[in-house]
Amino acid sequence: MQTRVMSLEEGKDPSPVIRTRVLPVRLLLKLFMFLILCALFSFISLSTFKRYGFDGMVGVVKPSYQPCIGESSGLDRWIRPPSNLMHTMSDEELFWRATLVPRIRKYPFNRTPKIAFMFLTKGPLPLAPLWERFFKGHEGRYSIYIHSLPSYDEEFPPTSVFYRRNIPSQLTQWGTMSLCDAERRLLANALLDISNERFILLSESCIPLYKFNFIQNYITNSKYSFIGAFDDVGPFGRGRYDENMAPEVNITEWRKGSQWFEINRRLAINIVEDTIFYPKFEAFCKPNCYVDEHYFPTMLTIRAANLLANRSITLVDWSRGGSHPATFGKGDVTVDFLKKIREKTTCTYNGRNTTVCYLFARKFAPSTLEPLLEVAPKVFDF
Ligand SMILES: *[C@@H]1O[C@H](CO)[C@@H](O)[C@H](O)[C@H]1NC(C)=O
Ligand SMILES: *[C@@H]1O[C@H](CO)[C@@H](O)[C@H](O)[C@H]1NC(C)=O
Ligand SMILES: *[C@@H]1O[C@H](CO)[C@@H](O)[C@H](O)[C@H]1NC(C)=O
């Protein structure tokens, strides 16, 4: 070590070595001692640096910059979810940030994949007490995000799972691109938490039809993501396609489906990063082309058809006719009714036939809360 340091010193500035020849022996000795001291000091500081890292070094000279409480110089700061959802990023900034993707597949830490429950609402969540029960005991396996009207102030107590889960929101209008914007905003905010692996879009009138563990197993063991995407050749399907969307969107790729999706992280990134299909849909899919029924199903079919189940896991009752789905009221909610809607149809799950097709249902009026809480332990087991 010593010799290496000395030779380094010499290499840096060879002139003193030449001069030493004419210097007296005592001075030479002093110089030698000084060099040894230098070497010793370098050695000590180097090993301190190695042992305690940069933090140990700056501990001597207090920096004027004080890091935020809890900010570490380790991996932590990159994998911890944001503590405050109310950031000041614009959509453009947020989408850019949300689509930063690690290139190495294997996570160098213990990652518990979480499900992001994203509530697209007008304001209050009248069925919140039912959801509170649903989430109870499953902390660390889910995250919640709420997009409401910007004017709406949340009212949840700190003990609630919904407390401070609102994201920066903007006005939305049904049937327009602003609705897709809100959904992309929810996805982007949820993507900021690297542990979120599955993303479910819900509304304030949605209820879960099974307990948390069942839903988690169903979703995480599925080879496919659940988004409705079908090729409707009629006037309300292909009839809404505009030739101007080619060549980005071909009529054979045009899909329709309800907006209540469940998608994995890869598809969520596909949606948030999209700059190719967005302008086409924005310009050429206006009422009576309802963009929220076509944009995601079509672009995901083009991007990743093999990852889609092409069906939704959210039950909507259209049987009563009209342009809006039926709303279930207080009188509808019974044990029988809920058991029946759970197994209404058959569908395929990982290639097999099943009667478990729907994990969520809508639309439930606020008045259904009381009977729902009453029958939940009997039907849903929560
Ligand atoms: C649309 O796709 C079909 C089959 O994939 C193809 O035959 C047709 O030429 C395409 N049309 C356009 C306008 O690209
Ligand atoms: C969903 O539809 C696409 C075509 O749009 C198809 O390629 C894919 O295999 C379908 N998914 C399933 C699970 O059948
Ligand atoms: C699944 O259901 C379809 C019709 O719904 C039927 O044709 C098919 O034979 C069933 N497959 C199995 C494996 O039971």
TrEMBL record:
Cellular component GO terms, alphabetical: membrane
Keywords: Glycoprotein, Glycosyltransferase, Membrane, Transferase, Transmembrane, Transmembrane helix
GO MF term set: glycosyltransferase activity
Location in the cell: Membrane
Domain of life, source organism: Eukaryota
Residue spans crossing the bilayer: 27-46
InterPro entries assigned to the protein according to its UniProt record, in alphabetical order: BC10-like, Glyco_trans_14
Pfam families in the record: Branch
Transmembrane found in the keyword field: yes
Keyword Cytoplasm: no
Membrane topology note: Single-pass type II membrane protein
Organism expressing this protein natively: Beta vulgaris subsp. vulgaris (Beet)
Name of the protein this chain belongs to: Core-2/I-branching beta-1,6-N-acetylglucosaminyltransferase family protein
Coiled coil feature spans: none
Taxonomic lineage from the root: Eukaryota, Viridiplantae, Streptophyta, Embryophyta, Tracheophyta
